[in-house]
Write a structure and sequence with these properties.
- The structure holds two protein chains of two kinds.
- By secondary structure, chain A is an all-alpha fold.
- Chain A contains two helices and no strands.
- The longest helix of chain A has 19 residues.
- Chain B is elongated, with a radius of gyration of 36 Å.
- In chain B, helix 2 packs antiparallel against helix 3.
- By secondary structure, chain B is mainly alpha-helical.
- The chains are: A mainly alpha, B mainly alpha.
- At the A-B interface, helix 1 and helix 2 of A face helix 5 and helix 6 of B.
């Protein structure tokens, strides 16, 4: 997941709004929160 | 008491001060203090009127010690559209760089965590691993927020909207 995020971020420029990056970063954030606390976020 | 009030009035003290001080019978000292405060206030007001007045007085006396700068002649940085656009461009570039840097850190931490978990293979997480997971969560949140926020107005080349015809 982190590798996918990195490749997607590398594709973007300063004028790009990438929904793929937003979704992947959100998925990593939720997974990390779930692993850390044992409960899903939100 | 009336005599002292007449003396203070002749000396140029404000009537309000005299009225305030007259309530204290025989209190000469408060009257003197009140007069001193009034005098200082009048002097400072007169000085501020001089410095804020016309430029004819500049170059003489106090004008040399405190040169007056006219703020209206300075270039308004915030109102200049070219400077504002440059600032937005710089902020957008900085945002992109920060996003790439956060993603690199996230990937590095994820690889380290993966190696540590695979090496230990205990089914439990150590404190250091939990810290790394928290850092990964924070970095992912930063990347998501930086991607959704942009500095300045969106650059669109869309034509202006066509008004709906009224019947």
């Amino acid at each position: 997941m982190a590798t996918d995020l990195k490749s997607e971020v590398d594709k973007t420029t300063k004028d790009t709004l990438s929904l793929t990056v937003v979704r992947k970063a959100g998925a990593i954030e939720q997974l990390a929160h779930k692993v850390r606390t044992g409960s899903p976020k939100g | 008491m009336h005599e002292s009030r007449r003396v203070f009035r002749i000396a140029g003290f404000h009537p309000a001060c005299l009225h305030l001080c007259a309530g204290l019978r025989g209190a000469i000292l408060p009257a003197l203090l009140c007069g001193l405060v009034c005098g200082l206030m009048c002097a400072s007001a007169g000085r501020s009127q001089l410095s804020g007045g016309s430029n004819g007085g500049q170059g003489q006396g106090m004008g040399d010690m405190h040169p007056h700068h006219d703020l209206s002649t300075l270039p308004p940085d915030d109102l200049d559209p070219v400077l504002a656009e440059r600032r937005m461009l710089a902020l957008n570039i900085q945002r992109q760089k920060q996003m790439v840097s956060d993603t690199n850190k996230l990937l590095k931490l994820a690889r380290e965590l993966n190696e540590e978990v695979a090496k230990a293979n205990t089914g439990t997480l150590t404190l250091d691993e939990l810290h790394k997971i928290a850092e990964i969560e924070k970095l992912a949140r930063n990347v998501r927020q930086r991607m959704t926020e942009s500095v300045g107005e969106p650059q669109t080349n869309l034509p202006p909207p066509i008004p709906y015809p009224n019947h």
